[in-house]
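Tokens for chain A. Residues wanted.
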């Protein structure tokens, strides 16, 4: 199969390229492909069997005042890629987010839970999901993920290690719950989804289990052989930001099992594997 990866210079895009090593892969970063340019998108997609869209406007706070810019990439661009994939009879995978939900739940969000985003970024990603599924209903996969960390690019886990090198103590919020997810695991899961010919639709590409940002921060330090007690818990009121964050971002994984596939492993195991693989380093 011929694969096209958009947003290929990002953290997930680079891990996808590594996971697809030896296969026929076209990797296009933002400088290589403007996903809002319909003609450019059509030309880029032509001749490929699978398109994985990792391109995204991810500046969550900036999106509050630049929602049109975020919509152009996250919604319009996603829709154009899905349309082009449908024209080329290619499978299409677009990576979405837990932010399509309001974060008020008390149990994991099911894949078919109605979208109800609470910020601009979430609205644009929700729109992108809808456009993709409408444009290519027989060949589109929406893979929602959250709390990503990995080797290539800034992320929370790397920030914790950087803070550990410069601070004696610091605080992390303990009232936001989610699923830390290693991009290498997500890349492998996306490939498995396509290779299995699984039913199209929505899947939740997050690690099993759950924790708070505070719990994740402590685990990062522990895995790196550092003292986790250097971190103290606080609440979100101490870190007010322009875009509201969902308090509860745990996603359910039933769609994988219905498709005969195992969900991503537990986040603790993934973190240990990431550290062992040298995927968490500080520049």
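Reply:
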């Amino acid at each position: 199969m011929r694969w096209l990866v958009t947003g290929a210079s990002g953290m997930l895009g680079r891990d996808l390229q590594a996971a697809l090593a030896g296969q026929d892969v076209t990797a296009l970063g933002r400088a290589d492909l403007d996903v809002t340019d319909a003609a450019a998108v059509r030309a880029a997609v032509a001749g490929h069997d699978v398109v994985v869209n990792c391109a995204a406007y991810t500046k969550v706070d900036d999106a509050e005042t630049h929602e049109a810019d975020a919509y152009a990439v996250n919604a319009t661009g996603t829709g154009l890629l899905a349309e082009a994939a449908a024209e080329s009879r290619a499978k299409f995978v677009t990576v979405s987010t837990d932010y399509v939900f309001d974060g008020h739940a008390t149990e994991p969000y099911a894949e078919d839970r109605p979208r109800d985003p609470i910020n601009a970024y979430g609205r644009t990603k929700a729109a992108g999901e809808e456009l993709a599924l409408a444009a290519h209903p027989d060949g589109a996969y929406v893979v929602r993920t959250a709390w990503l960390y990995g080797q290539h690019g800034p992320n929370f886990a790397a920030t914790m290690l950087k803070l550990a090198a410069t601070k004696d103590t610091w605080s992390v919020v303990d009232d936001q719950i989610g699923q830390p997810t290693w991009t290498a695991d997500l890349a492998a899961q996306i490939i498995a989804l396509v290779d299995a010919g699984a039913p199209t639709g929505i899947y939740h590409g997050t690690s099993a289990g759950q924790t708070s940002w505070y719990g994740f921060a402590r685990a990062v330090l522990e895995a790196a052989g550092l003292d986790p007690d250097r971190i103290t818990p606080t609440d979100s009121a101490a870190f007010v930001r322009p875009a509201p964050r969902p308090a509860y971002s745990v996603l359910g994984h039933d769609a994988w099992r219905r498709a005969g596939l195992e969900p991503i492993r537990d986040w603790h195991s993934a973190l240990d594997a990431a550290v062992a693989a040298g995927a968490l380093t500080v520049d």
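The first strand starts at residue 2 and ends at 6. The chain has one domain: 2-154+179-209+251-265.
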